[in-house]
Amino acid sequence: MSRKVVLVTGAASGMGEAVARKYLELGDRVVGFSLEETAGIIHPNFTYVRGDITKLEDCERAAAAAAEKYGMLDTLVNCAGVVKEGNLETTDASAFQKVMQINAGGTFNICKASIPYLKKQPSSIVLIASDMGAKPLNDRIAYNPSKAAVIMLMKCIALDYAPMVRCNAVLPGIIDTPMIQNRLRQSDHPEELMKIYESLYPMGRIGKVEDIVNGVLFLNDDASAWITGIELPICGGPI
Ligand SMILES: NC(=O)c1ccc[n+]([C@@H]2O[C@H](COP(=O)([O-])OP(=O)(O)OC[C@H]3O[C@@H](n4cnc5c(N)ncnc54)[C@H](O)[C@@H]3O)[C@@H](O)[C@H]2O)c1
């Protein structure tokens, strides 16, 4: 029996796609939202909305699609995001603003668009931040602060909307998704770069999307009914 109506951003790729597929497998109804033309998911309980998370009106279309198609919205998983490397000298101001606009502003937009629906019944939000939002990695002057902002947004939403809406964040370490595969492809020494990534984590490997899906499932489940406002690092070691 179908239980949840889940809005997943970034659903066309990586973690978002894996989260969307898992909820469909569990019998839930899913609205996927991303920049891509299509999500590549074909399922009777799946609706895709193409849009830009930096545009509030696009986020409103996605949240409204859940209510129109499935009668309500009680779960939001925000996976849309971008990564950017660079320091003060190699990151220009417009690149900094863009990363902040997508990762932090986009999180604000999708939560703002969804909250009128979420607060109608007990609901749950999971925001995908990053371990780098809590403990910065060098050469990420835009990315690290953008994910720190996501963590603080999560805490603000948790405070403002308890007890009806819970809000938590997953802080992934480096995860094997298209985002990281693209980064490896751009490198002149992909094997060395992979070794550097692996060495960051005491568990000796980078993460799999399943590691993140499991954390998202737990935080949206009744098993975590008294948990709100937390950062859950899923990064093969302590932050
Ligand atoms: N892969 C990693 O190592 C890693 C580590 C920590 C955190 N994260 C975070 O996890 C999230 C998912 O990453 P992933 O690795 O699955 O990436 P991905 O590149 O595979 O997928 C990102 C998705 O976000 C969507 N997106 C990007 N900009 C958008 C916009 N303006 N509007 C709407 N959708 C947009 C893309 O369309 C895509 O579907 C991101 O927020 C990322 O910052 C990733």
Could you write a compact summary of the structure shown?
Helix content is 43%, strand content 16%. By secondary structure, the protein is an alpha/beta fold.
Describe the structure.
43% of the residues lie in helices and 16% in strands. The protein has 239 residues and is α/β, with parallel strands linked by helices. It has a single domain, classed as Rossmann fold (3-Layer(aba) Sandwich). Helix 1 links the parallel strand 1 and strand 2. The structure holds nicotinamide-adenine-dinucleotide. Nicotinamide-adenine-dinucleotide binds next to helix 1, helix 3 and helix 5.
Q: Given the C-alpha coordinates, what overall shape results?
A: globular
Report the total helices: 7
Could you give the distance between the termini?
38 Å
In angstroms, what is the radius of gyration?
17 Å
Q: Which ligands occur here? A: nicotinamide-adenine-dinucleotide
**How many separate domains make up the residues?**
1
Largest sheet: 7 strands, parallel
What is the CATH C level class, in words?
Answer: Alpha Beta
Instruction: Please provide the count of β strands.
Output: 7
Q: Trace the largest sheet across and list its strands.
A: 3-2-1-4-5-6-7
What class would the helix/strand composition place it in? alpha/beta
Helix content: 40-55%
CATH superfamily: NAD(P)-binding Rossmann-like Domain
Please describe the topology of this protein.
Elements: E1 5-9, H1 14-25, E2 29-34, E3 46-50, H2 56-70, E4 75-78, H3 93-118, E5 123-128, H4 143-161, E6 165-172, H5 178-186, H6 190-199, H7 209-220, E7 231-234
Parallel strand pairs: 1-2, 1-4, 2-3, 4-5, 5-6, 6-7
Helix pairs in contact: 1-7, 2-3, 3-4
